[in-house]
Amino acid sequence: MKSTNVLKGVGIGLALLLAATAQGRTAEPGAKDEPIKLAMLEWTGAHVSTHIAGQLLEKLGYKVEYVTAGNFPQFSGLADGSLSASVEIWLNNVGDIYPKVLAEKKIEDIGKLDLKTQEGWIYPKFMEKVCPGLPDWTALNKPECIQALSTPETAPNGRFLDYPADWGSRAATILADNNMQYTAVPAGSEGALVAELEASEAAKSPLVMMFWGPHYALAKNEVGWITMPPCKEQTNEHCITPPDVDKIVWSGFGAKWPAAYAFLKAFKMDATEQQKMMLAVDKEGKDLDAVVKEWVDKNEAVWKPWVDAAKG
C-alpha cells in the first residue's frame, strides 16, 4: 500500500513537471534577420489576406516582403524557397504543378484559410418577384421567367450572363444538361460582369449570371444564390461547388521560422470582412496597407489567438 502511494506521488510530480515544461515552451522565432517572402497574387482578396498576415508577422518581429507572383508560377517559387508562403490558394485553380510539388514534399499545405467561398448562379434579389420560386433553379423554367430574361440576342431563349469566354463555360454545359431554355452569353471581362450586376440593380432589369465570392460587388449588392440543378456527371464541367482555400508554405518554412509557421497555421480569413476591405480598395480607391492596418487596429480580439499560437 505504501509503495503504491509513493508511485502515485512520483507520477503526479512527473505530470506537474511536464505541464510546467509545456507551459514554458514557446515557438522559436528562427531567422528573424531574413525576410519572409509572401506571394502576392492577382486578385484583391488575396492582397487583403496576404497583407493582414504580413502586418501581423511584422508585429511578431519578422521582416516581410511582398512578391508579385502568378497563380501557377508561384508553386515553382514555393518549391525552391524563393517564395516563403502563399496564404490564399484556391484549390480549384492550381494547375498541374501544385500536386506534383506537393507529392515531392517541396511545399507543405498547412491547412484551411477558412474563407467561405461561393460560386454559382446569382440574381439581384428583386428577381424573386419576376421569377417566383427562386432561389430554386426550377423557377427559371417558368415561361414568364424565360420571357423576362429574353433579349433580341437570345429570343426565344432567356439570356444567361456567363463568365468571359476565356474562363471556360460550365454554365452553358449545365443549361444544356438540364434542357433549360437559356443561351449563355459571355461577359467581356470581370468588370463587365460587375457593371451588369450594378446596372440591373439600379434599373431593376432582369438578370441571372455566373459569379463567385468573396467579391467586393457582394458587399454592396444584395443577391440570391440559385440552388443549382443536379449534376449530370461528377466532373468540373458538369458541377459547380465552392472551392476550398488553403495556405501553402515552402517545405523548409517551419524549420526556418517556427513561430511564424505556428502563426500561419492559426491564421484565418472571414469572407464578409474581406469583401468589405476589397470594396474599400477596389471601389473607394483607398490604400491597401491603410485599409488592412485599420482592420488590424480594430480587431485585436480576432487576431490575438493567432499571434498567441506563435508564442506558444
Give an account of the 3D structure.
The strands form four sheets. Strands 3-10-4 form a three-stranded antiparallel β-sheet. The chain has two domains: 28-116 and 244-311, D-Maltodextrin-Binding Protein, domain 2; 118-225, D-Maltodextrin-Binding Protein, domain 2 (3-Layer(aba) Sandwich), CATH 3.40.190.100. 35% of the residues are buried. Strand 1 (36-40), helix 2 and strand 2 form a beta-alpha-beta unit. Residues 1-24 have low confidence and may be disordered. With 312 residues, it is an alpha/beta fold. The protein has helices at residues 2-24, 44-59, 74-80, 97-103, 127-130, 143-149, 170-177, 190-203, 253-256, 258-266, 271-282, 288-298, 300-311, and strands spanning 36-40, 64-68, 85-90, 107-112, 118-124, 158-162, 182-186, 209-213, 223-225, 245-250. Helix 10 (258-266) packs antiparallel against helix 13 (300-311).
